[in-house]
Design goal:
The chain is mainly α and 301 residues long. It has two domains: 148 residues, CHAD domain (Alpha solenoid); 143 residues, Alpha solenoid (CHAD domain). 80% of the residues lie in helices and 0% in strands. The radius of gyration is 22 Å and the shape is globular. It starts with 9 loop residues before the first helix and ends with a helix.
Length: 301
Amino acid sequence: MKIIRKKENAVSIVRDILQDLLADIYAYRKRVLKEDDNEVLHQFRIAVRRSVVLMGEFSSIDRSGQILVHRKALKTLIGISNTKRDLDVLYGRICTLSAEAVSHNDAVNLLKKQLEEMLQKEHRKILEYLLSQTCSDILRSWEAYLGREYFNTVSDSDVTIKKLSDKVIYRRFLKIKKQIKALEQKPGKTEEKLHALRISYKKLRYLLETFAGLYRKKKMQKLLKEMKKIQKVLGDFHDSCQQDVLLEQLLKIEEDPTLRIFISEVLRPELKKYREKEIKEIKKQLERFLRKKKCYRKLFR
Protein backbone atom coordinates (compact mmCIF):
# COMPACT_ATOMS: atom_id res chain seq x y z
CA MET A 1 0.00 0.00 0.00
CA LYS A 2 1.25 3.46 -0.88
CA ILE A 3 2.32 6.04 1.71
CA ILE A 4 -0.66 8.04 2.98
CA ARG A 5 -0.17 11.80 3.25
CA LYS A 6 -2.08 13.81 5.85
CA LYS A 7 -3.72 16.27 3.45
CA GLU A 8 -4.89 13.72 0.89
CA ASN A 9 -8.61 13.41 0.28
CA ALA A 10 -10.23 10.93 2.67
CA VAL A 11 -12.62 9.57 0.06
CA SER A 12 -9.84 8.65 -2.36
CA ILE A 13 -7.62 7.12 0.33
CA VAL A 14 -10.36 4.96 1.85
CA ARG A 15 -11.33 3.71 -1.60
CA ASP A 16 -7.69 2.90 -2.45
CA ILE A 17 -7.25 0.96 0.79
CA LEU A 18 -10.45 -1.03 0.23
CA GLN A 19 -9.40 -1.84 -3.34
CA ASP A 20 -6.02 -3.09 -2.08
CA LEU A 21 -7.78 -5.25 0.51
CA LEU A 22 -10.13 -6.64 -2.14
CA ALA A 23 -7.09 -7.64 -4.20
CA ASP A 24 -5.79 -9.47 -1.11
CA ILE A 25 -9.16 -11.20 -0.65
CA TYR A 26 -9.10 -12.46 -4.23
CA ALA A 27 -5.48 -13.62 -3.91
CA TYR A 28 -6.02 -15.48 -0.62
CA ARG A 29 -9.30 -16.95 -1.82
CA LYS A 30 -7.42 -18.48 -4.75
CA ARG A 31 -4.78 -19.88 -2.40
CA VAL A 32 -7.32 -21.28 0.08
CA LEU A 33 -8.88 -23.24 -2.78
CA LYS A 34 -5.48 -24.73 -3.68
CA GLU A 35 -3.71 -25.06 -0.32
CA ASP A 36 -4.88 -26.80 2.85
CA ASP A 37 -3.05 -24.29 5.05
CA ASN A 38 -4.59 -22.68 8.14
CA GLU A 39 -2.31 -19.66 7.85
CA VAL A 40 -3.57 -18.89 4.34
CA LEU A 41 -7.17 -19.11 5.57
CA HIS A 42 -6.22 -16.87 8.49
CA GLN A 43 -4.81 -14.22 6.13
CA PHE A 44 -7.97 -14.44 4.01
CA ARG A 45 -10.07 -13.80 7.11
CA ILE A 46 -7.89 -10.85 8.12
CA ALA A 47 -8.23 -9.21 4.70
CA VAL A 48 -12.01 -9.57 4.87
CA ARG A 49 -12.18 -8.38 8.49
CA ARG A 50 -10.07 -5.30 7.76
CA SER A 51 -12.40 -4.47 4.89
CA VAL A 52 -15.49 -4.94 7.04
CA VAL A 53 -14.04 -2.73 9.79
CA LEU A 54 -13.20 0.13 7.42
CA MET A 55 -16.58 -0.16 5.70
CA GLY A 56 -18.29 0.25 9.07
CA GLU A 57 -16.06 2.90 10.61
CA PHE A 58 -16.07 5.08 7.46
CA SER A 59 -19.66 4.42 6.38
CA SER A 60 -20.51 8.12 6.75
CA ILE A 61 -18.63 8.98 3.57
CA ASP A 62 -21.11 7.02 1.47
CA ARG A 63 -24.28 9.06 1.13
CA SER A 64 -26.22 6.20 -0.48
CA GLY A 65 -25.71 3.89 2.50
CA GLN A 66 -24.96 1.01 0.13
CA ILE A 67 -21.54 0.45 1.68
CA LEU A 68 -23.27 -1.09 4.72
CA VAL A 69 -25.22 -3.44 2.45
CA HIS A 70 -21.95 -4.66 0.93
CA ARG A 71 -20.43 -4.86 4.41
CA LYS A 72 -23.18 -7.23 5.55
CA ALA A 73 -22.63 -9.43 2.49
CA LEU A 74 -18.86 -9.47 2.95
CA LYS A 75 -19.22 -10.56 6.59
CA THR A 76 -20.59 -13.91 5.38
CA LEU A 77 -17.09 -14.70 4.10
CA ILE A 78 -15.88 -14.54 7.69
CA GLY A 79 -18.83 -16.40 9.18
CA ILE A 80 -18.40 -19.42 6.92
CA SER A 81 -15.03 -20.23 8.52
CA ASN A 82 -15.76 -19.36 12.17
CA THR A 83 -16.60 -22.92 13.22
CA LYS A 84 -13.44 -24.33 11.64
CA ARG A 85 -11.38 -21.69 13.39
CA ASP A 86 -12.94 -22.57 16.78
CA LEU A 87 -12.41 -26.29 16.14
CA ASP A 88 -8.76 -25.65 15.26
CA VAL A 89 -8.25 -23.86 18.57
CA LEU A 90 -9.96 -26.64 20.52
CA TYR A 91 -7.91 -29.28 18.72
CA GLY A 92 -4.74 -27.37 19.58
CA ARG A 93 -5.76 -27.27 23.21
CA ILE A 94 -6.39 -31.02 23.27
CA CYS A 95 -2.88 -31.55 21.91
CA THR A 96 -1.38 -29.56 24.82
CA LEU A 97 -3.39 -30.89 27.74
CA SER A 98 -2.42 -30.92 31.40
CA ALA A 99 -0.89 -34.01 32.99
CA GLU A 100 -4.24 -34.93 34.55
CA ALA A 101 -6.02 -34.74 31.22
CA VAL A 102 -3.35 -36.71 29.36
CA SER A 103 -3.95 -39.63 31.75
CA HIS A 104 -7.34 -40.07 30.03
CA ASN A 105 -5.57 -41.39 26.95
CA ASP A 106 -8.46 -43.30 25.35
CA ALA A 107 -10.83 -40.36 25.68
CA VAL A 108 -8.23 -37.94 24.31
CA ASN A 109 -7.64 -40.08 21.23
CA LEU A 110 -11.36 -40.49 20.61
CA LEU A 111 -11.95 -36.76 20.93
CA LYS A 112 -9.07 -35.98 18.57
CA LYS A 113 -10.52 -38.34 15.99
CA GLN A 114 -13.95 -36.72 16.23
CA LEU A 115 -12.49 -33.22 15.96
CA GLU A 116 -10.43 -34.22 12.92
CA GLU A 117 -13.58 -35.47 11.20
CA MET A 118 -15.42 -32.25 12.08
CA LEU A 119 -12.52 -30.16 10.79
CA GLN A 120 -12.51 -32.00 7.47
CA LYS A 121 -16.26 -31.44 7.14
CA GLU A 122 -15.91 -27.70 7.87
CA HIS A 123 -13.02 -27.42 5.42
CA ARG A 124 -15.19 -28.88 2.67
CA LYS A 125 -17.96 -26.40 3.53
CA ILE A 126 -15.53 -23.50 3.20
CA LEU A 127 -14.27 -24.68 -0.18
CA GLU A 128 -17.83 -25.18 -1.44
CA TYR A 129 -18.79 -21.68 -0.37
CA LEU A 130 -15.70 -20.00 -1.83
CA LEU A 131 -16.40 -21.77 -5.14
CA SER A 132 -20.08 -20.85 -5.09
CA GLN A 133 -21.83 -18.33 -7.30
CA THR A 134 -22.99 -16.53 -4.15
CA CYS A 135 -19.42 -15.83 -3.06
CA SER A 136 -18.38 -14.71 -6.55
CA ASP A 137 -21.39 -12.40 -6.80
CA ILE A 138 -20.61 -10.78 -3.44
CA LEU A 139 -17.03 -10.02 -4.46
CA ARG A 140 -17.88 -8.85 -7.97
CA SER A 141 -20.63 -6.59 -6.71
CA TRP A 142 -18.27 -5.05 -4.16
CA GLU A 143 -15.58 -4.65 -6.80
CA ALA A 144 -17.99 -2.88 -9.16
CA TYR A 145 -19.18 -0.62 -6.36
CA LEU A 146 -15.61 0.39 -5.49
CA GLY A 147 -15.10 1.38 -9.10
CA ARG A 148 -17.89 3.94 -8.99
CA GLU A 149 -17.74 7.46 -7.55
CA TYR A 150 -20.07 6.63 -4.70
CA PHE A 151 -18.13 8.00 -1.74
CA ASN A 152 -19.70 11.43 -1.58
CA THR A 153 -21.38 13.27 1.28
CA VAL A 154 -21.79 16.95 1.98
CA SER A 155 -19.97 16.71 5.31
CA ASP A 156 -17.04 14.43 4.47
CA SER A 157 -16.45 14.52 0.72
CA ASP A 158 -13.71 17.19 0.91
CA VAL A 159 -12.18 16.34 4.29
CA THR A 160 -8.54 15.24 4.56
CA ILE A 161 -7.69 11.69 5.57
CA LYS A 162 -5.86 12.93 8.69
CA LYS A 163 -8.88 14.86 9.92
CA LEU A 164 -11.29 12.02 9.26
CA SER A 165 -9.02 9.32 10.73
CA ASP A 166 -8.64 11.45 13.88
CA LYS A 167 -12.41 11.55 14.18
CA VAL A 168 -12.95 7.85 13.51
CA ILE A 169 -10.16 6.61 15.81
CA TYR A 170 -11.14 8.84 18.72
CA ARG A 171 -14.80 7.87 18.32
CA ARG A 172 -13.83 4.21 18.57
CA PHE A 173 -11.72 4.96 21.67
CA LEU A 174 -14.72 6.64 23.34
CA LYS A 175 -16.88 3.63 22.43
CA ILE A 176 -14.41 1.30 24.14
CA LYS A 177 -14.25 3.56 27.18
CA LYS A 178 -18.04 3.42 27.44
CA GLN A 179 -18.02 -0.39 27.11
CA ILE A 180 -15.43 -0.72 29.89
CA LYS A 181 -17.50 1.49 32.19
CA ALA A 182 -20.60 -0.61 31.48
CA LEU A 183 -18.62 -3.75 32.33
CA GLU A 184 -17.62 -2.24 35.69
CA GLN A 185 -20.93 -0.64 36.64
CA LYS A 186 -23.49 -3.17 35.40
CA PRO A 187 -22.82 -6.75 36.55
CA GLY A 188 -24.03 -9.70 34.52
CA LYS A 189 -23.60 -10.90 30.95
CA THR A 190 -19.82 -10.67 31.36
CA GLU A 191 -19.01 -13.03 28.48
CA GLU A 192 -21.30 -11.13 26.11
CA LYS A 193 -19.82 -7.76 27.11
CA LEU A 194 -16.24 -8.99 26.78
CA HIS A 195 -17.04 -10.38 23.34
CA ALA A 196 -18.31 -6.95 22.22
CA LEU A 197 -15.27 -5.31 23.79
CA ARG A 198 -12.94 -7.72 21.98
CA ILE A 199 -14.49 -6.75 18.65
CA SER A 200 -14.16 -3.04 19.48
CA TYR A 201 -10.48 -3.46 20.30
CA LYS A 202 -9.95 -5.34 17.06
CA LYS A 203 -11.52 -2.45 15.16
CA LEU A 204 -9.34 0.08 16.97
CA ARG A 205 -6.21 -1.95 16.28
CA TYR A 206 -6.99 -2.20 12.56
CA LEU A 207 -7.57 1.56 12.44
CA LEU A 208 -4.28 2.29 14.21
CA GLU A 209 -2.37 -0.09 11.94
CA THR A 210 -3.96 1.24 8.76
CA PHE A 211 -3.32 4.91 9.52
CA ALA A 212 -0.16 4.63 11.64
CA GLY A 213 1.84 6.57 9.04
CA LEU A 214 -0.19 9.71 9.75
CA TYR A 215 1.06 9.91 13.34
CA ARG A 216 4.26 9.90 15.37
CA LYS A 217 5.93 6.54 14.89
CA LYS A 218 7.05 5.92 18.49
CA LYS A 219 3.66 6.84 19.92
CA MET A 220 1.84 4.54 17.54
CA GLN A 221 4.24 1.67 18.15
CA LYS A 222 3.64 1.97 21.88
CA LEU A 223 -0.14 2.14 21.50
CA LEU A 224 -0.16 -0.87 19.18
CA LYS A 225 2.06 -2.89 21.52
CA GLU A 226 -0.36 -2.27 24.39
CA MET A 227 -3.32 -2.94 22.11
CA LYS A 228 -1.98 -6.38 21.15
CA LYS A 229 -1.61 -7.34 24.83
CA ILE A 230 -5.23 -6.46 25.54
CA GLN A 231 -6.40 -8.21 22.38
CA LYS A 232 -4.52 -11.36 23.35
CA VAL A 233 -6.16 -11.75 26.76
CA LEU A 234 -9.59 -10.90 25.33
CA GLY A 235 -9.00 -13.31 22.45
CA ASP A 236 -7.86 -16.11 24.76
CA PHE A 237 -10.93 -15.61 26.94
CA HIS A 238 -13.22 -15.69 23.90
CA ASP A 239 -11.51 -18.85 22.61
CA SER A 240 -12.07 -20.61 25.93
CA CYS A 241 -15.76 -19.63 25.82
CA GLN A 242 -16.12 -20.98 22.29
CA GLN A 243 -14.35 -24.20 23.26
CA ASP A 244 -16.79 -24.67 26.12
CA VAL A 245 -19.71 -24.15 23.71
CA LEU A 246 -18.30 -26.80 21.36
CA LEU A 247 -17.77 -29.24 24.22
CA GLU A 248 -21.32 -28.66 25.44
CA GLN A 249 -22.62 -29.44 21.95
CA LEU A 250 -20.53 -32.62 21.85
CA LEU A 251 -21.98 -33.74 25.18
CA LYS A 252 -25.50 -33.56 23.73
CA ILE A 253 -24.69 -36.11 21.03
CA GLU A 254 -21.82 -38.12 22.52
CA GLU A 255 -22.69 -41.65 23.65
CA ASP A 256 -19.28 -42.93 24.75
CA PRO A 257 -19.31 -42.80 28.60
CA THR A 258 -15.52 -42.43 28.87
CA LEU A 259 -15.49 -39.38 26.62
CA ARG A 260 -18.53 -37.87 28.33
CA ILE A 261 -16.81 -38.10 31.71
CA PHE A 262 -13.60 -36.66 30.27
CA ILE A 263 -15.42 -33.66 28.79
CA SER A 264 -17.66 -32.93 31.78
CA GLU A 265 -15.22 -33.67 34.62
CA VAL A 266 -11.84 -32.68 33.17
CA LEU A 267 -12.00 -30.41 30.12
CA ARG A 268 -14.87 -28.10 31.03
CA PRO A 269 -13.72 -27.55 34.65
CA GLU A 270 -10.23 -26.71 33.34
CA LEU A 271 -11.71 -24.17 30.95
CA LYS A 272 -13.76 -22.62 33.74
CA LYS A 273 -10.66 -22.15 35.91
CA TYR A 274 -8.81 -20.68 32.95
CA ARG A 275 -11.58 -18.14 32.29
CA GLU A 276 -11.64 -17.04 35.93
CA LYS A 277 -7.91 -16.42 35.75
CA GLU A 278 -8.20 -14.55 32.44
CA ILE A 279 -10.93 -12.23 33.73
CA LYS A 280 -8.56 -10.96 36.44
CA GLU A 281 -5.87 -10.26 33.83
CA ILE A 282 -8.40 -8.57 31.55
CA LYS A 283 -9.44 -6.19 34.33
CA LYS A 284 -5.81 -5.19 34.90
CA GLN A 285 -5.27 -4.54 31.19
CA LEU A 286 -8.46 -2.48 30.91
CA GLU A 287 -7.47 -0.31 33.87
CA ARG A 288 -4.15 0.43 32.16
CA PHE A 289 -5.94 1.25 28.93
CA LEU A 290 -8.22 3.81 30.59
CA ARG A 291 -5.15 5.64 31.84
CA LYS A 292 -4.31 6.34 28.18
CA LYS A 293 -7.23 8.76 27.85
CA LYS A 294 -5.03 11.86 27.66
CA CYS A 295 -2.74 10.23 25.11
CA TYR A 296 -5.64 9.39 22.78
CA ARG A 297 -7.16 12.84 23.21
CA LYS A 298 -3.86 14.52 22.40
CA LEU A 299 -3.15 12.35 19.36
CA PHE A 300 -6.56 12.13 17.75
CA ARG A 301 -8.53 15.25 18.71
